[in-house]
Design brief:
Elements: E1 5-8, E2 15-19, H1 24-43, H2 46-62, H3 64-75, H4 79-102, E3 109-110, E4 116-124, E5 127-131, H5 137-142, H6 145-151, E6 154-158, H7 167-175, H8 178-181, E7 184-186, H9 191-197, E8 203-207, H10 210-223, E9 227-230, E10 235-239, H11 245-257, E11 267-273, H12 277-290, H13 309-324, E12 328-331, E13 335-338, E14 341-344, E15 347-350, H14 357-360, E16 367-373, H15 376-384, E17 388-389, E18 391-395, H16 399-406, E19 413-416, E20 433-434, E21 437-438, E22 452-460, H17 468-473, H18 481-489
Parallel strand pairs: 5-6, 5-8, 6-7, 8-9, 10-11, 10-18, 11-16, 15-16, 18-19
Antiparallel strand pairs: 1-2, 3-4, 4-22, 9-21, 12-15, 13-14, 17-20
Helix pairs in contact: 2-4, 2-6, 3-4, 4-6, 11-12
The chain binds nicotinamide-adenine-dinucleotide (NAD).
């Protein structure tokens, strides 16, 4: 660690920013300081923590423009950067509303043993580590951080080295809130820093690829700490013969190409009923050709560049593999080099099958391979023929028909007559299936419970010498049978 890392600008291809990862001892010291600050943060109580977070929210709003500027340089796209920055106050508000109810310890309660009452407490993990990816850099660095802070944890965040420019303006906002800076720190660095961090934390929330996720899970298991993993996907869309083609093509185009397809829950495979296949493809191609690149300026179009250079190589590889194996390209189809950046127009492919990488491996680009199916059973089989299980979409003329398919899909969230709704519906709790992740839901109110341990206080209310072992250890005691009888009948 500690060697300077250059950061590539996705619009120019130039290395124009540098980060210096912390040394091992700097990282250890930083984590130790956060750990020291955490008990005071927890003792503040939830109501006070909410007040602090609300103050931070106001400061983030005051620095909105700096954050958007840094993030759009990080990613080369503007609209999504604005949405990301504006999602921060929304996340803080949503959790400020939801946390008090979910973390309420309630009253003392009866138990099945008449003379024992119970009371519950939630004890936060002292130091949570968040390791996040480059595709939605700000929002994914905060999605777990905000509930963890409200739960009473201290948090150290290690965003991706590919998109780190937002870290300094965000850190500036944190510095302006004295209570928060004791318990929240961002560190710059690459994979080595992420791996080193796991040695100092009590729980890890990791968002990234399956391969790295496995390494994180193994490191966490060695340390015996919980790991919550949100990993890659290869989301299918299933379009039944009864579907509204106009609606399906628009929703799928959005689901597949927003953020230039660089979304874990992007639609990456499309299965369409044979009877409507030609009309579907024609409409999808027509609409795809109307999407413009946001080049040369941010405002010129809808689609930003491919953010990570290594991702452009993967997209290119999937395209070449598909074409070599017989796929037909209807539009798009290449990585374009414009102004030093790497761009890919919405690409529709047909004559595809599951021998191709584009149908089986995560592409993370705006590719839409479309494959016909003869029966609903075949569509379900194809959609489930994957190592992934993040989310999916089903389009049908009736909700019942769509639900019947949705129930058979091995994925944690299914959008019906729309695509990628998981990204916008905060309330919906879901798990990632198969290799797409591990651990409790990140979405929905219960997500905050990932950051606490439940402690039960079991309180004896009556001064009786049961259960039976109290009797048994009394000097001169006869039999414990009476005590045992009391226990089982009470
Ligand atoms: P990545 O796995 O390469 O890196 C993710 C993070 O892990 C980065 O911060 C990186 O520096 C760090 N890292 C790398 N090696 C590490 C190690 N050995 N130990 C600890 N940390 C390490 O992923 P990426 O390329 O940045 O992101 C793209 C991937 O993220 C895609 O697969 C995408 O599907 C996935 N993703 C998933 C979700 C979700 O919610 N399921 C959301 C967004 C992105």
């Amino acid at each position: 660690m500690s060697e300077r890392l250059g950061v590539r600008n996705p619009r120019t291809g130039q290395i124009d920013y540098w980060i210096t990862p912390p040394t091992a001892s700097e990282l250890a010291d930083l984590c130790a300081r956060l750990r020291q600050g955490q008990p005071g943060w927890w003792r503040l109580g939830l109501a006070q923590r909410i007040q602090v977070m609300q103050r931070w929210k106001e400061i983030v709003l005051e620095h909105r423009d700096e954050l958007i500027a840094a993030l759009s340089t990080d990613t080369g796209r503007l609209r999504e950067s604005v949405i990301e920055v504006d999602s921060v106050p929304l996340m803080i508000d949503w959790w400020s509303r939801v946390a008090p109810e979910v973390l309420s310890t309630g009253q003392e309660q009866l138990t099945s043993i008449s003379f024992i009452r119970m009371r519950r407490e939630f004890v936060p993990y002292p130091l949570v580590g968040v390791i996040s990816p480059w595709n939605v850099p700000l929002a994914l660095s905060l999605i777990d951080t905000i509930p963890a802070l409200l739960a009473g944890c201290a948090v150290v965040v290690k965003p991706s080295e590919v998109t780190p420019r937002f870290i300094r303006p965000l850190t500036h906002t944190i510095e302006l809130v004295p209570e928060l800076r004791q318990v929240l720190q961002f560190v710059e660095g690459g994979g080595e820093t992420g791996a080193a961090l796991i040695e100092y934390i009590d729980l890890v929330c990791f968002t990234g690829g399956v391969k790295t996720g496995r390494q994180v899970a193994e490191a966490a298991a060695r340390r015996f700490i919980p790991a919550f993993l949100e990993l890659g996907g290869k989301d299918p869309a299933v379009v039944l013969a009864s579907a509204d083609i106009e609606l399906a093509t628009s929703a799928i185009l959005w689901g597949a190409t927003s953020n230039a397809g660089q979304n874990c829950l992007a639609i990456e495979r499309i299965y369409v009923a044979e009877s409507i296949f030609d009309r579907f493809v024609e409409q999808l191609v027509d609409k795809a050709q109307r999407v413009r690149l946001a080049y040369p300026s941010f405002e010129d179009g809808e689609l930003g560049p491919i953010i990570a250079e290594r991702q452009a190589a993967i997209i290119q590889e999937h395209l070449q593999d598909a074409v070599q194996k017989g796929a037909m390209v209807h539009c798009g189809g290449t990585i374009e080099h414009l102004g030093g950046g790497l761009w890919c127009r919405p690409t529709v492919l047909t004559h595809v099958n599951h021998s191709m990488k584009v149908m089986t491996e995560e592409t993370f680009g705006p590719l839409m391979p479309v494959m016909p199916f003869a029966t609903v059973e075949e569509a379900i089989h194809l959609a489930n023929d994957t190592i992934y299980g993040l989310s999916a979409a089903v389009f049908a003329g009736s909700e019942d028909e769509a639900r019947a398919v949705a129930e058979s899909l091995d994925a944690g969230s299914i959008s019906i007559n729309d695509a990628a709704l998981t990204a916008v519906v905060r309330e919906a709790e879901k798990n990632s299936f198969k290799a797409s992740g591990l651990g409790g839901s990140r979405m929905g109110p219960s997500a905050i419970k990932r950051f606490v341990r439940q402690k039960a206080l079991l309180i004896k209310k009556e001064p009786i010498s049961d259960p039976w072992w109290f009797d048994a250890i009394k000097i001169g005691s006869q039999s414990s049978a009476a005590g045992l009888q009391h226990l089982v009948t009470s």
